[in-house]
Fold this sequence. Notes:
Strand content: 15-25%
Number of helices: 14
Oligomer: single chain
Number of domains: 2
Number of strands: 17
Largest sheet: 7 strands, mixed
Amino acid sequence: MDWDRVRSDFPLLRRTFHGKPLVYLDSAATSQKPQVVIDAVCEFYSERNANVHRGAYQLSEEATEAYEGARARMARFLRAADPSEVVFVRGTTEAINLLATSLQRGYLKPGDRVVTTVMEHHSNIVPWHMLRTYAGIDLAFLDIDETGRLDLTELDRLLKPPTKLLTLGHVSNVLGTVNPVRAIADQAHAAGVLVLVDAAQSVPHRAVDVGALGADFLAFSGHKMVGPTGIGVLWARRELLDKMPPAMGGGEMIREVKLDRVAYRDPPGKFEAGTPNIEGAVGLSVAADYLEGLGWEEIAQHDRELQRRAFRRAEETLGDRIRIYGPREIEDREAVVSFALRGIHAHDVSSILDAEGIAIRSGHHCAHPLMDRLKVPALSRASPYIYNTLGEIDRLYEALEKCVRVFDGPTASLPSSPPAAVAGVPTRGS
């Protein structure tokens, strides 16, 4: 794969900041957009903009065809059984909130338990806390082990009644850990427990087959997979969607409304109240075309090369001044490198790197429980993607060396020996 050609597809990457070429390493937060996706959104507004499902005129029919065509495309993207299993939402957060609200109305009852994990993004924790507060749902958490993987020793116990739902991320947005979703889902189903998968961090990097994962529900955001913002997908098995009540009411999602009753459309329509993000769905379908056109194995190989360079440069240039969190084995993680520089706050690291034209994320990464588990106030996170190069990883570490010298003084020398533990999480009590 010619990755320089891929990089040229992303117009924003031509920008400079503080007189230096941009090195964008915050793709776990949001990815940049290729020109074909930008063009698709612009083309919809220029040529086909009308509301969907409502107009008996050709322009509306064209818009509807584009919108429903995007749904069919995303069903193929997920290897779903039918397009009716794809519900368009604003993103992962809305998908999980929609599901939580619907399940609370038609499936969960006070005293039932939802199990999630300490490594989850807040979007997969806060909605369940809300159900605990307002609907009497119990909430329990799977811990992680000392390598940054899920500790499954308590899973059997936590799946016992009254557990009704297990929800977990496919890939951690902090540790990069790829969770063994299929094995966990099989265990959950054997106990009669439904499974929701947060795939926000996996769909940009790998082919996701909802059947192979064993998921009952799956959520992801378009903006992390080179698609537009404000669009995402909640996928669910059709027999579950048929039983679930809608979470929002309004136009579009109704079959008929009378003064004394309401009848709803069949799925997915009953979950899509109001005018949808039509151009976002169109852009998302083009993003799916773009990624599959590159090839998932090629993307995975590029991710691994970037990660290997990041780990090697950490050992060579920073020694025990840096700690990278998560599994050490490249095969067990995605391209998310969360780290701490000893004695330097993550926000200071981010500010110094910004002056070098390098964009990373710093803070709690919408994962307060995980930060508490790791016993850190914040971490720095570099998350490269398809448009990043090995040279940009080198620039990152040159800038990190500068961070250390800024705080240690101009005569500081860095350790040349590798750290005792580049990856992993601190032990309890450490």
